[in-house]
Amino acid sequence: MKVLVAIKRVVDYNVKVRVKADNSGVDLANVKMSMNPFCEIAVEEAVRLKEKGVATEIVVVAVGPATAQEQLRTALALGADRAILVEAADELNSLAVAKALKAVVDKEQPQLVILGKQAIDSDNNQTGQMLAALTGFAQGTFASKVEVAGDKLNVTREIDGGLQTVALNLPAIVTTDLRLNEPRYASLPNIMKAKKKPLETVTPDALGVTLASTNKTIKVEAPAARSAGIKVKSVAELVEKLKNEAKVI
Amino acid sequence: MTILVVAEHENGAVAPATLNTVAAAAKIGGDIHVLVAGASVGGVAEAAAKIAGVAKVLVADNAAYAHALPENVAPLIVELAKGYSHVLAPATTNGKNILPRVAALLDVDQISEIVSVEAADTFKRPIYAGNAIATVQSSASVKVITVRTTGFDAVAAEGGSAAVEAVAAAHNAGISAFVGEELAKSDRPELTAAKIVVSGGRGMGNGDNFKHLYALADKLGAAVGASRAAVDAGFVPNDMQVGQTGKIVAPQLYIAVGISGAIQHLAGMKDSKVIVAINKDEEAPIFQVADYGLVADLFEAVPELEKLV
């Protein structure tokens, strides 16, 4: 089967971001960017499906700025066969991304689409579900295990109280949770080979997609800072403070 | 303005997250209707009708809605949504699973995990693992929103007397099926609703050592959480994870034991009223957010703490 994987370029997860002084957003100038960690897990899962002989081709797609080519090349180095960049402004809303991905799905006709469960910048957790709605496919969100069984897909999902397993008709959408797999690192020879793999760039216009949004960010602020705490010297002092000062036990 | 709240329920009872979501709806203002969708949910609907501030309860009782499969529940909500100004659900795994599907079918953007209501169309939500707070305005005809339950104080579960109305609509997409579930069993309070949370990290060393935390938690009537490091190391199951990608908690007291305090963990607990950190590394970032820090070996400090409380 053909597998489509959507990835996003985001601020590296180790970076502590700063809010801009004019409250228009967070300062992304000269900040290290990487592939969103959940997207790495999505790429890894597709590569493992290919290694098992289940997937025949892996197409990786990003919707975003031209610089997202770096992350697409990373995905190619990890084992994806070819890449598509839908070149658009940065910071699109999830519905716009889902619409662009729907157009790519229509063109590529994959049997399985894998996305991360959320991007660590917007923390939306929407795109996979929205793509499932637009395509009419079944969705297996927060997946910790994915098994192809004939014409069905068994997905074990991480839910609030534990784990749930659902069976989905193919084609289907899966979004990855942290424990689905441990992503591999790209080897140097594979990074070199990835430079020769095909990377196609398209515009939303060419796909017939409009990226209008019903949400507008008015302001971005730093969260309220916690007042500095104190260090206690002993457990007895800690218990005394909790009982008499904070009055929480 | 009329607001539809999608109820979270389990084992025939209304989940506490529903009460926080109704509280968010009350902040927006207008009539509040609650949708209870599921199989054999008559009892849940009766309980939902007693929630303070609820004007009407809609019950969609159909086998297709069992286990809240989004392929079946989303079209139901879409059909009902046309008459509402807002559709709200708690940001639980169910709410996060279903609501974006609803939003896309309505062709509107969703606002995820709001922590405050500024106006009927303007909301605040954390981004970048809680390192920034965005104020977002929606121009959508139906505003589709998930509510971070720790951002709103629960309304009373009793005192209301809403009318209960059955919804006949039956949507069964037939493209997904429930196979089974494995729920973690626990006698302790639920993590997201507990007043006190005791969490362990990689410093616990192994799963067996969590017994020290369980003993302390039982004495305090607390829930037990964990950092991602502890979950990934296999010490405890993943539904105990607190953080950006796990559960978001805001208890009265949060005790972090053997947790360094990575950005991703802080995202899940930094709104706690009082934070206590017990760590032997005095440079650990957790001490920067802790109200009370104790630099000590947790294997000595935790049993002593258990004795003294």
TrEMBL record, chain A:
Q: Which family does it belong to?
A: Belongs to the ETF beta-subunit/FixA family.
**What is the protein named?**
Electron transfer flavoprotein subunit beta
Q: Does the keyword Electron transport apply?
A: yes
InterPro entries named among the record's database cross-references = ET-Flavoprotein_bsu_CS (IPR000049), ETF_a/b_N (IPR014730), ETF_b (IPR012255), ETF_beta_N (IPR033948)
Electron transfer flavoprotein alpha/beta-subunit N-terminal domain location is: 23-211
Q: Please give the PROSITE patterns that the UniProt record associates with this protein.
A: ETF_BETA
Q: Which domain of life is it from?
A: Bacteria
Keywords for this entry?
Electron transport, Transport
Q: Do the record's keywords include Electron transport?
A: yes
UniProtKB/TrEMBL annotation, chain B:
Q: Which SMART domains is this protein grouped with? A: ETF
Keywords, alphabetical? Electron transport, Transport
InterPro entries per record = ETF_a/b_N, ETF_a/FixB, ETF_alpha_N, ETF_asu_C, ETF_asu_C_CS
* Pfam short name (any one): ETF_alpha
- Top-level division of the source organism's lineage: Bacteria
Record-annotated Electron transfer flavoprotein alpha/beta-subunit N-terminal domain positions:
3-182
Q: Which PANTHER family match?
A: ELECTRON TRANSFER FLAVOPROTEIN ALPHA, ELECTRON TRANSFER FLAVOPROTEIN SUBUNIT ALPHA, MITOCHONDRIAL
Query: What is this protein's name?
Result: FAD-binding protein
Q: Which species is listed as the source?
A: Pseudomonas fakonensis
